Amino acid sequence: MSWCMQLVKRANYKATVRDPGTLGVLTMTENKFVFSPNVHTSTAAKPALDVEFKQITRLKNTKEGGAGPALGPPWLRLSEKDKTYIFEFASFRDLHVCREFAANALAKRGEAAIPTRDKFCTAEIMHRMKLLQESSELHKLHMQYVMSGVLTEAEFWAARDKFGDVDSRPKPKQRVGFRNSMIMDTKPMTDGRTNTVTFSLTAEIKHQIFALKPAVQQAFLALVPHKTMEKNFWTKYFRAEYLRITGNAAAAEAEAADDEELAMFLKEDELLAREARRKLRRVDPTLDMEADQGDDYTHLPDHGIFFRDEVYSRRSTLSQDLNRQGAVVLQGRSIVEVDESGVQERFGRIARTTEMEDLQEPHHLHVAQLLCMKDPGDYFDTQQANNAVKTEEAYGSLRQSISKIKSIGLGNSTVAPEIALTIFNATSF
Amino acid sequence: MASAPSKLYADDVSLLMVLLDTNPFFWSSSSLPFSVFLSHVLTFLNSILLLNQLNQVVVIATGYNSCSYIYDSSTSTNQGSDNGRMPARCVNLLQKLEEFVIKDEQLIKEGLREGIASSLLSGSLSMALCYIQRVFRSGPLHPQPRILCLQGSSDGSEQYVAIMNAIFSAQRSMVPIDSCYMGSSNSAFLQQASYITGGVYLKPQQPNGLFQYLSTVFATDLHSRAFLQLPKSLGVDFRASCFCHKKTIDMGYICSVCLSIFCKHHKKCSTCGSVFGQAQSDVNSTSNKKRKTPET
User: Fold this and answer.
1) Which residues contact A107 (CB under 8 A, 6 or more apart)?
2) What is the pTM assigned to this prediction?
3) DSSP code, position A64
């Protein structure tokens, strides 16, 4: 905002619209504007003007471009309660400078806000009103500055635009997400008469299958145009899915042996597995996930005794499917390739989180050996291992023990004094 | 056992029933040799008998195939081959124990109990309770009975029902079951037994100091116990075993009539014969009518 203390412009002063006007010099200061005619006359009809801005209630001017030459030179109209001052200028530039000055002066004087820029299109005004309605904070600022006259309407909005008004820009179109329903298992339909099952497949379902199972997408891209027809591809995919749903492992294996494309669908999704491993590496190294998994043996048969490899080769569980679905629905993106630099970063984090050097794993191991209960059953039924001992040996050693004590008798000190003291202290409170 | 009326049984006179685990499979793998264990126990028994001359000690061997009384301080005479190395009563006890082990081994040759290395705790508990009942019925004056289980082998879940019955029986007769468990993990049966009957469950951290544990925690009579702060169980494994397969389970089916526990849904309770899963109105209809059965 440029603010000079005084503005002097040539102008033609008219008391009314029909008035031919008086040529003179318009001088505007912070408080008032003064018009001095070029020809000093003593007639009372055209006195020199000296009006204070605080008396002015309205400010109007011709619109640039809107007025043709027929309407005459650009004018600025300052209105009092019952009097109007019209100044005609030689150029729009002069008009604008004067209008700006007058508007500033009026605003400074605490006058009511005057829309100085009438050129706003209706859409913009509507937009501003909408913004004010939407944001109470903005409305408050507007009240504070514009209504009280600290800033003009134009300045207010100009400042707002300068601060990077994101709201005024058209918003990017919202991306359409996936339906949040489990499409992992597209259910087949039967017609009830024959053994044929029908999978209905839309473009959206295809898209979702690709998003959920990157391996299928890879296979599709590799195979479909050249090697096999799209219909054939999907038939095989759903055949594999069907075998999986029915849990017919034997049939699945038999079919997989015949058809390598089908086998591809039946085996584990390598991309997802890699992704899972990558995520595992990002877990806080001090958190022993495998031990937790091992502890939670209660829901598994045989006290959850399993072998490490089986855990990984097991088909994804419902919870894993749900997690995958949730991730895809939220992100709607394809799988990022495995980041090998994560390994190095993980070592760094281990070094940071593990203070003692002993607890840090050796760096040459590429994949960390997690601390884990290898077999929770070991801890559950430890004594079961005793079965391995031969019955005769066991009874033999028992009898030997009895004979031994019979022969040596009771010793003088059954318990070593230091042990006795430790125990005594531990058991007495 | 002759309980002479002339004896003056004060409230600090104890009848200690000691259940001695003689499971050969446990002791052959235990870090504490059986001979050392025996020396601690024998010393402890001697000290119990020395605490009060009216104290009575009965030892029952909890074997792998059988159980047997191997010592009773009220009947055994102190006469015998006191060879100077140990009191005669210990010699007698060891003699009986050796005979018991030989008999127990013979039993295993006849019918092999495959797969389970647990001792017959339910049998020895029942024998101890029977003995206590005899003492109770001998007259109004009798020593205060308590049971001390010196157990090492793991719980035999197939004995669950029998052991629980014994525990509740002990609870009814106000007989506390103390337990000193020498095995590697805790024994859920003994934890429950001690918890229910108000006894003390102890798992010695240093087995080679067993005598110290026994004399500190288990030597005092029931009357004096009220004035002592004995070790409290930090946690009790309350899991039950199912009646059908004797498996330890976390969740199961309970008969609404007799509270029997099953790991699977049954049409009929094997304990009390109640028929499950039929609504009141369906009682007269055919039994093969389709009904909702919870999936197992």
Assistant:
1) A113, A114, A149, A150, A151, A152
2) 0.45
3) T
CB contact (8 A) between residue B184 and residue A383:
yes
Protein fold of B14-225: Rossmann fold (3.40.50)
Considering A271-275, A305-309, B119-123, B237-241, the range whose residues carry the highest mean pLDDT is B119-123
Residue ranges, comma separated, of all CATH 3.40.50.410 domains in chain B are 14-225
pLDDT at site B278: 56
Does any CB of chain B come closer than 8 Å to the CB of residue A393? yes
**CA nearest to B57, candidates B16, B94, B87:** B16
Contact B86 A409 (CB under 8 A): yes
Record: contact A398-B34, CB cut-off 8 A = yes
Do the chains contact at B35 and A404, CB–CB below 8 Å? yes
Q: How far is CA A204 from CA A178, A179, A208, A210, in A?
A: 8, 9, 6, 10
* Mean pLDDT in residue range B222-228: 87
Give per-residue pLDDT as tens, B139-161.
888 899 999 999 998 888 778 88
Say if A250 is an interface residue toward chain B (CB within 8 Å): no
Please answer yes or no on whether B24 and A397 come within 8 Å at the CB atom.
yes
Q: Which of B22, B112, B208 lies nearest to residue A419, judging by beta carbons?
A: B208
What average pLDDT does this structure show over B8-12? 75
Closest CA to A324 of A337, A335, A313: A335
**Which residues of chain B lie closer than 8 angstroms to A399, CB-CB?**
98, 101-102
Cα diameter, chain B: 79
Backbone angle region of B115, left / alpha / beta, with phi > 0 → left and psi within -120 to 50 → alpha: left
Any idea what DSSP says for residue A388?
G
Query: Taking phi first (over 0 means left), then psi (-120 to 50 degrees means alpha), and beta for anything else, what does residue B186 get?
Result: beta
Q: Which residues of A touch B84 (CB under 8 A)?
A: 409
Residues 6+ apart with CB under 8 A from B234: none
Q: How far is CA A247 from CA A183, A251, A315, in A?
A: 18, 9, 11
A·B CB contacts under 8 A: 133
Q: What is the ipTM of this complex?
A: 0.76
pLDDT tens per residue, range B75-90? 866 665 556 667 888 8
Q: In the numeric block, which tokens belong to residue B115?
A: 């797969």
Lowest mean pLDDT among A183-187, A213-217, A369-373: A369-373
DSSP code of residue A384: G
Q: What share of chain A is helix, strand, coil (3-state, %, to 5)?
A: 50, 10, 40
- Closest CA–CA distance from residue A382 to any residue of chain B (Å): 7
Position of tokens 């008798």? A409
